[in-house]
Amino acid sequence: MPSKNARATRVGYRCTECGHELAKWVGKCPKCQEWNSVAEAAPARPALSQVTAGAPATPARPIAEVDLDSARAVATGIDELDRVLGGGIVPGAVALLAGEPGVGKSTLLLEVAHRWAAGGSGGPSLYVTGEESAGQVRLRAERTGAVHSELYLGAESELASVLGHIDAVRPGLLIIDSVQTVQAGESEGTPGGVTQVRAVTTALVALAKERGLPVILVGHVTKDGAVAGPRALEHIVDVVLQFEGDRHSSLRMLRGVKNRFGPADEVGCFEQGEQGIVEVADPSGLFINRPETQVPGTAVTVMVEGKRPLLAEVQALVTPTNMTMPRRAVSGLDSARVSMMLAVLDKRGGIKTGDQEVFAATVGGMKVTEPAADLAVALAVASSTTDVPLRSNVIAVGEVGLAGEIRRVTGVGRRLAEAARLGYDHALVPPDCGPLPEGVQATVVEDLTSALKLVKPSKRRRGDRESTS
Q: What is the pLDDT of residues 31-70, one digit of tens each?
């Protein structure tokens, strides 16, 4: 039987793509299914029984004596991005911007580099691309008007060359597009692999902290929407941003997933057009449609993304079908919650949709997953079923429980203030929602039955009783 020391120094094998460790060599990694990615790993070093004290790099000081000027956020020049970052980017911070291909990450960051260079206060900006040539980036800059003498462009895929550009330019802002294409020569693995991404990110984070240089990294995503590469990548960086958008819609949403210097749940709105990415300071108008004549099957609610209230219109279409299994199609909403609303409407509200097809969607490509939209979804489905429209000046806010009760949600006053600003003067709200702003007439609904009276005419109810008897 081998001794402990022999087991500690035994040579192992590790996948250079996913980091999976194995006891022997195999041609195909059993975890990531990559061929020829398993290589011999260095033996683990024995643990030290005692660690000797060393001289600290900087002496510890009372917290009141720590300088704050070096940690104050600097505005990037794009208000929606600064909102998500918490006022701007902090010197020495490393931010990771992830998103699907074609969503506009490179276009947005090229505009960030241009605004930073045009500001003149933070020094030049350096944009390093590893996916495109310098000429391709210049063509995009010409199209979007992002050409400036203080914006430097480098097309490199080697980490050593990137560091050389930094020493030559001395930028105030560094953008790497993307971190999966940069390779550290002294590390094993292929570009984009776990080992390479970790090594490149660690080196850039150390550089940013040493020089107080803000760095923005572009990251790829997997088919599931998660950031590609090791999970440790999100822990290494200071800020993680998710850039979302449907390729069939011009709307783009920038969400803060992690932020060590500000709120982690803020959202910024952009619109992508032929001239590049444009900020949308008041996005509520993109998510609602106010026709002159109200149509059955629509209801308006107010969502809260971070600290920003946004009006969202929910539409539903309920139509008879001869199919054995009626279809249920959902777009922009949580399909599980829509199914739950259909069950509650059937059991508690008398709205039968078992033999009808139900289609539910939001307007403008907005994704609504907050439970506060339950009441609006239920009213939209009921309105389409009874063919009775809601009044155009009514909004609905509230979570619907399985017993049909309307539950309290957070920030009702802030939601109604935004609704009043856009001309909605009547709101359906849950009980005990606190003080409400002026200009909005609030109707408290305790259960779903009370709310359905707005879309369930009495003539229809009498007919139902007669047919039942």
A: 888 888 888 876 655 555 566 787 887 889 898 888 887 7
d(Cα 209, Cα 216) in Å, to the nearest integer? 13
DSSP letter string, 86-138:
TSSBPTT-EEEEEE-TTSSHHHHHHHHHHHHHHH-SS--EEEEESSS-HHHHH
How crowded is residue 352: how many other Cβ atoms within 10 Å of its Cβ?
A: 13
pLDDT at 468 exceeding the cut of 60: no
Cβ-contact 144, 107 below 8 angstroms: yes
Q: Is 101 annotated as a binding residue?
A: yes
Q: Which residue has the tokens 């409400």?
A: 436
**Cα–Cα nearest to 277, from 119, 153, 149, 115:** 115
Q: What DSSP letter does each residue of 24-77 carry, written as one string?
A: S--SB-TTT--BT-EEEEPPPPPPPS-------SS----GGGS-SGGGS-B--S
Mean pLDDT for the stretch of residues 144-165: 94
Say if residue 192 carries a ligand binding annotation.
no
Angle between the N-to-C axes of helices 194-211 and 159-169, in degrees from 0 to 180, rounded to the nearest 10: 20
Considering only CA atoms, which of 96, 80, 89, 97 is closest in space to residue 125?
89
Q: Any known ligand binding at 105?
A: yes
Residue-wise pLDDT for 288-304, tens only, equals: 877 767 889 999 999 99
350 assigned ligand-binding residue: no
Q: Is the pLDDT of residue 10 over 60?
A: no
The answer to whether 445 and 406 have CB atoms below 8 angstroms apart is yes
Which pTM was predicted? 0.78
Model confidence pLDDT, tens digit, residues 342-378? 999 999 999 999 999 999 999 887 889 899 999 999 9
d(CA 387, CA 385): 6
Of 262-271, 321-330, 454-463, the range with the lowest mean pLDDT is 454-463
Q: Is the dihedral of CA 222, 89, 268, 427 positive or negative?
A: positive
Q: In what order do the strands lie in the sheet with 394-396?
A: 328-331, 356-362, 308-320, 298-305, 394-396, 426-429, 441-444
Q: Is 377 annotated as a binding residue?
A: no
State how far the alpha carbon of 88 is from the alpha carbons of 59, 105, 152, 214, 326, in Å: 29, 18, 21, 10, 50
Is 104 one of the annotated binding-site residues? yes
Residue 186 among known ligand-binding residues: no
Among 361, 372, 371, 413, residue whose Cα is nearest residue 396: 372
Please determine, for residue 247, whether its predicted confidence score (pLDDT) is greater than 80: no
The answer to whether 46 is annotated as binding is no
